[in-house]
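task queued by scheduler; priority normal; single chain, no ligands, no partner chains; default sampling; output format set to C-alpha cells
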Amino acid sequence: MKLSNSYAILTQNNSNTEPLVQHLLRNHAVSGLTELQPLKGLLFSRSEINRYMDEEERHDIKVLAKDNEQALKTMSSGEQKKALLNYLLQQDPGFIILVNPYDNLDVATQAKLKEQLLDIASNKIVVQLVSRLDDILPNTVHFFKLDGNNLLKYDSPDAFWKENKTESISFNGTIPPPISKIDVDTKELVSFKKVSVGFDGRQVLDNIDWTIKKGEFWQLIGPNGSGKSTLLSMITGDSHKGYGQDLTIFGQKKGSGESVWDLKQKIGYYTPAITNKFRGYHSLENMIISGLHDSIGLYVLPTDSEKQLANQWLNLLNLKDRKNDHFRDLSTGDKRLVMMARAMVKHPPLLILDEPTAGLDDYNAHLFVALVNKIARESDSTIVFVSHRKEPQLEPEYIFELHPSENGSKGAVFNI
C-alpha cells in the first residue's frame, strides 16, 4: 500500500481559508502544494454539508442521504459527516480537503472518524485545515500555517510543533465584584432526583440524580443526543419537561409557582449562538453593561457605577483602550471574552457555559479557558461547562457524564 503525502495547515480565527480552499479545488498553483495542482480535489467541511442540506430542502434532491430514509437535516452531526465522507470517497478524488473535521462531534465519534481518516490518508492525499494542533493526523508529512492570507511552510515537523505550541496563559488583576450581590438562601442550587424524560415515545434521560451546590465547578459531558441540552433547558426553565418531576432549582420545586424570570435572573448563560444576536453597533462598554439588564443592546442611560464596573472587566480582558469600539468589529476570540464578561458581570449564582470554545483556535480556546478557571477560583458563582471537546487546561472539580442506553441516558459523577 502506497503511503501518500499528508498535509496539515494550522489555521487561526483570523485565517482566510476560503481563497486557499478554492485555489486548491480549482487546480491553481499554491506554493508548497504544487503536487496537488493536476489532481481532482473534493471538500469535506461543514459548509459542504450545509450546501447539500439546502439542496435537499429547496429542490427535494437527496445526494448524501439518497440511500437513507432520513432527511439530512434530521441526522446527527456524526451521521452527516459520515454520509459526506462516503459520498466523496465514491468519486475517488486525487485529494480530500478536511476543514476542522472533528467540530461538533463527541469524543467517541471523533475517535472513530480519526481512525477512518488515518486509513484514508494511507493511500490518498489528505489536506487538513485545522484550528487545533490535537486534530492533526499523526502520519502527517508536510506542515504549514495560514496567517491571515499568508501560507507559511515549515521545513521540519519539529519547527512547526515548537513554534505553534501554546504556552500557559493567565490574566492580570482580579475578577471585579458585582454592584449588588444576588443572594440565594439554599446551599443546593440544582437537584435532580430520579428524573426521567422522553420525547415522542423515545426515552432520553433515565433516573437522573444530580445535585449542584454553591461554588462548585462542573463539566457536563456526553455523546451527541445523550440529553445534555435537555438537562440545561430544564435548569434554565426553557423546557416544560421539569414539571411533575422531582426537580428543585434554587430551593424551589419545579411546578410550585416559581417564576421563569426569577430563575433567569439568577443564571448567567452563554453559548456561541448568542453572539449572533448582537449585530448592531454596540460598544464594548455597553455590551458588558447590557448584561446587568439582560437586554440585547443597552436601552437605558448607564450609571457611573455601571460604567466603572464595565471598564474593570475590560481592563481585566486587556480591552480597556477599546471600550468605544464596536463589538461586531472584534475578533472571534475577543468576542467570546466580552460575552463571558457580560454573562458574569452580575456574578450570577449559576453560570452555564454551553460549548463556549467551539470553533476557537488553540490560542483563543486556551485564553477563554484561563478566564473560566480564574472565575471559578475568585468568585462564588457555580459553573457548569458543557463541551464535546476535552479542553486540557480546564480545571473542573467534578464531571457529570451521560451514558446513553436503550432506556435513555444514565448519569455518572466523577470527582477530579
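post-processing summary
- The chain has two domains: 6-164, 188-415.
- The first strand starts at residue 6 and ends at 11.
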